[in-house]
Amino acid sequence: MATLTPEQRKLFEDKNLVTVASLGKDGTPRSTAIWVDIDGDDILLNGPMTRAWMQNLKRNPKVALSIYDNKQIYNQVRVLGEVVDITSEGGEAHIDKLSQKYNGRDYPDHRPNEPRHIARVKITKVV
Questions:
Q1: In this predicted model, what pLDDT tens digit does every residue of 6-52 receive, in sequence order?
Q2: Between 2.30.110.10, 1.10.1760.20, 3.30.9.10, 2.60.40.10, what CATH number should domain 6-126 receive?
Q3: Could you give the C-alpha distances from 38 to 8, 59, 109, in angstroms and in order?
């Protein structure tokens, strides 16, 4: 497993969006920009299982992530990884934490019929 340098890690700690690239059922690529978190050496993604990118990660755990410093776009990191766990446990509290990070308030749109899930990504390569 690969690890991030302190400078690379800071990109994931700051208010930068990450682009998640996954593969659909038919093999076509899909990318979406989302909020991101980091826990130890793992990257944490959050979304409901109704989203195509989450379904893709459940079916095929290989993932590519790109993150750019929103203040200096040439400061960027690309990560290849594998989703090692997807859980709903703590998902709602985690989206509140992400909303506090990005918006300064709890997430305003909790949907009981679409519970949030956390996808834990182990980094395999840093580019």
A1: 999 999 999 999 999 999 999 999 999 999 999 999 999 999 999 99
A2: 2.30.110.10
A3: 11, 23, 22
